[in-house]
């Protein structure tokens, strides 16, 4: 074979390899979609976490403790490793009661199904916004991967409230990149008011000297947090703190919990995880302070860091990583591995994680490994004129 023939053959082989890889990825995504559809079917007719939200609304409407575990509507989680039943009441801050009180007057089953539909629509809308914001980076595979994110299906199955938080996080991300600092802060403040574990995100922006953002975020979070006192009295915060303190530590061992405390608890103690969380806070804030401010990098550190240091970081939270990965022009090997981990079906997580200690660490904390990979790729020291997303965003 002549040199010309060999050179003509190489592109053909490369093209065939790329085509085969593309078809294989589509096949895997189709398989994951089928598994997700099968796994969600039984949950669609149950209340699960949404039952706890209805319970909080009913109790608040009657002037009782909205954080009680005595209501039959409160979701009861069975630990696969110990067969213990874990009551899972609404643990969201008191501001959440404003949204749950109207649920006291509706049919629980119909409300749960409707909320799942609304959540799915919110999530798809968020993916559409990201695709429109980064058109040069978006392709069908990336969109199909996003729609198969384990956190999305887990959110729908449980009837959780992560979808509106996802939309707010996208708002913070895009507004910060476009230098709408005050609006970005207002949206971040709304996130913190309903999910205080994201206060680390605020701290990252604070040490990065984003004054307008942190002030608007802080004011928004404080105002929203004070409103429940005016309507329900100060005791509602005492009830909330009591519910948080009484939540069993066995929750750290639930599959899909991505916190550092959950990781070390699988070895027998959550204390090393707490130490790791403190180290991550100190190191992360130090990096943010010493580095040039780049919105995508600071927000990535804020999102991922918040999820890792929170004691209970459930699978549904991982949908907040979508702005991070959608804004990347190309995925390196760490992004690819993170994407695989974050889209690994929760049904398979439940099947594998309880078989051994190794499986509990690998599969039970698989979404946490995905978060760590994203964090390790965050070269926050690199002095760039702009991020990938800023240079090509339309």
List keywords for this structure.
2% strand; 2 strands; 20 helices; 394 residues; mainly alpha; disordered C terminus
Describe it.
This protein is mainly α. The chain has one domain (113-392). Helix content is 65%, strand content 2%. It contains 20 helices and two strands. The chain has a two-stranded antiparallel ribbon. A hairpin with a 6-residue loop joins strand 1 (75-78) and strand 2. The longest helix is centred in the N-terminal third of the chain and has 38 residues, at 3-40.
Q: Quick recap of the structure?
A:
By secondary structure, the chain is mostly helical.
Secondary-structure map:
Layout: H1 3-40, H2 49-61, E1 75-78, E2 85-88, H3 97-100, H4 108-133, H5 140-147, H6 150-158, H7 162-177, H8 181-194, H9 199-207, H10 211-232, H11 235-246, H12 260-265, H13 271-290, H14 295-309, H15 322-326, H16 333-342, H17 346-352, H18 357-362, H19 366-376, H20 388-392
Antiparallel strand pairs: 1-2
Helix percent reads 55-70%
What is the count of structural domains?
1
Oligomeric state? single chain
Q: What class, by secondary structure content?
A: mainly alpha
Number of helices: 20
In whole angstroms, the N-to-C terminal distance is 48 Å
Annotation, overall tally of beta strands? 2
Judging from the principal axes of the Cα atoms, what is the shape? globular
Sequence of strands across the biggest β-sheet: 1-2
* Series of secondary-structure elements, N-terminal to C-terminal: HHEEHHHHHHHHHHHHHHHHHH
Which consecutive residue ranges, at least 5 long each, have pLDDT under 50?
Answer: 383-387, 389-394
Q: What is the averaged pLDDT score? A: 91
Largest sheet: 2 strands, antiparallel
Strand content: under 5%
- The radius of gyration computed from the alpha-carbon positions, rounded to a whole number of angstroms, is 22 Å
């Amino acid at each position: 074979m002549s040199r010309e023939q060999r050179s003509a053959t190489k592109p053909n082989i490369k093209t065939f390899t790329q085509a085969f890889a593309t078809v294989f990825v589509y096949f895997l995504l189709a398989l994951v979609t089928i598994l997700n559809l099968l796994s969600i079917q039984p949950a669609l007719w149950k209340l699960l976490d949404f039952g706890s939200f209805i319970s909080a609304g009913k109790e608040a409407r009657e002037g009782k403790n909205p954080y009680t575990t005595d209501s039959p509507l409160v979701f009861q989680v069975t630990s696969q490793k110990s067969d213990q039943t874990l009551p899972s009441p609404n643990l969201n801050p008191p501001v959440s009661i404003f949204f749950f009180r109207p649920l006291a007057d509706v049919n629980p089953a119909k409300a749960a199904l409707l909320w799942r539909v609304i959540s799915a629509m919110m999530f798809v809308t968020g993916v559409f916004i990201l695709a429109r914001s980064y058109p040069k980076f978006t392709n069908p595979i990336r969109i199909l991967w996003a729609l198969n994110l384990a956190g999305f299906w887990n959110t729908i199955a449980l009837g959780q409230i992560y979808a509106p938080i996802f939309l707010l996080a996208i708002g913070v991300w895009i507004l910060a990149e476009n230098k709408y600092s005050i609006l970005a802060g207002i949206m971040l403040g709304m996130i913190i008011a309903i999910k205080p574990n994201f206060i680390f995100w605020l701290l990252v922006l604070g040490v990065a000297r984003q004054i307008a953002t942190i002030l608007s975020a802080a004011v928004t979070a404080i105002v929203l947090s004070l409103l429940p006192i005016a309507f329900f009295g100060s005791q509602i915060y005492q009830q909330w703190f009591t519910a948080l303190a009484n939540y069993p530590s066995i929750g750290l061992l639930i599959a899909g919990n991505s916190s550092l405390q959950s990781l070390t608890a699988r070895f027998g103690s959550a204390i090393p995880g707490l130490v790791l969380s403190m180290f991550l806070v100190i190191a992360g804030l130090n990096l943010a302070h010493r580095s040039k401010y780049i919105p995508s990098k600071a927000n990535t550190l804020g999102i991922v860091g918040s999820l890792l240091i929170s004691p209970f970081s459930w699978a549904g939270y991982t949908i907040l990583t979508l702005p991070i990965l959608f804004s990347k022009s190309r995925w390196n090997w760490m992004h690819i591995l993170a994407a695989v981990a974050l889209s690994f079906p929760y049904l398979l997580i439940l099947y594998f994680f309880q078989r051994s200690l190794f499986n509990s660490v690998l599969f039970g904390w698989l979404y946490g490994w995905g978060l760590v990979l994203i964090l390790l790729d965050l070269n926050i020291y690199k002095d760039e004129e702009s991020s990938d997303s800023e240079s090509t965003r339309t």
